[in-house]
Amino acid sequence: MTGDLGNPKNTIEILQKYQFTFSKRFGQNFLIDNHVIGKILAAAEVNDKDMVLEIGPGIGTLTQHLASKARMVVAVEIDDKLIPILKDTLSDYDNVLVIHEDILKVDLNEVAEKYNDGKPIRVVANLPYYITTPIIMALFESHMPLESVTVMVQKEVADRMSAGPGSKDYGALSLAVAYYAEPYLAANVPPNCFIPRPNVGSAVIRLTRHKNPPVMVKDEALLFTLIRGAFNMRRKTLSNALTHHEPLSGLTREMVTEALRDMELSEQVRGEAMTLAQFAHLSDYLTDHFGIRAGEEKL
Question: pTM for the whole thing?
Fold first, then answer.
């Protein structure tokens, strides 16, 4: 039987037992603080009816606690070296399924259908910082049945997720999160809660999926192409940034100026000053008046 991995002594024993070496490639930092684990569980609001999807379980520290509360945990781990460790540390739990795969290659809708009858699931994870944004966007863009996403991320990224117009942290990720979910910053976490210690502070943030988006837009893909274009050249005016954004090659400065005039906004406005509703209005105006459509692009 493996002890509680929230205890640093037990974590070190497991790492030594398997002669595990941390991978910079996978951005591995394992939690060693039960107080923080408690904060994650409280924010996620997991109960015995829930199926939880955990991304990057590591050695199973958070997984153990999730399994004690949830009906089932599906944990997706990419690192070959961690699979035998997880088999050991999770041997006492018969409600955990470990999938050895890259989360960005997993059919998330199939997971929800197979293990939760297509009902909304909760995602809980201590995310690798280098790939946080692609994972968050994949979860939302898959349109899988999703109740909430509760994740440990770099503090700076958590600030960007919850930022509003005009702030230094406001950007494309802020708008994407606002479109899909309601953010709630649950806790700040110092570096000494991990092994090895990261060089930055962390935070726990919960993103509760909107039942319906706060804005209605005719071309969702165009909305996000405009948002991406607006922040690719952050210090330029919106019209300048958008007309230099390659996926919007058919867009002219005159089109953007006309749309801004219709919205009673200055030609000199920058993307960082615009709300989600204003981006949605811009998107629909460009579609309705000029037939602008989106190309394929990811945040």
Answer: 0.94
pLDDT at res. 249: 85
Q: Which of 162, 154, 165, 92 has the alpha carbon at shortest distance from 129?
A: 154
Residue 151: name the closest of 33, 62, 240 by CA.
62
In the chain, alpha helices (H): 8-17, 34-44, 61-69, 82-89, 108-116, 132-141, 155-162, 172-180, 220-232, 238-243, 253-262, 276-290
What is the number of domains present in the chain? Answer: 2
Residue identified by tokens 């089109």 is 255
For residue 132, what are the domain limits?
8-209
Instruction: Supply the CATH number for residue 186's domain.
Output: 3.40.50.150
Cβ atoms of 15 and 59 within 8 Å: the answer is yes
Q: Which residue has the tokens 């009816």?
A: 49
Q: Are residues 145 and 264 in the same domain?
A: no
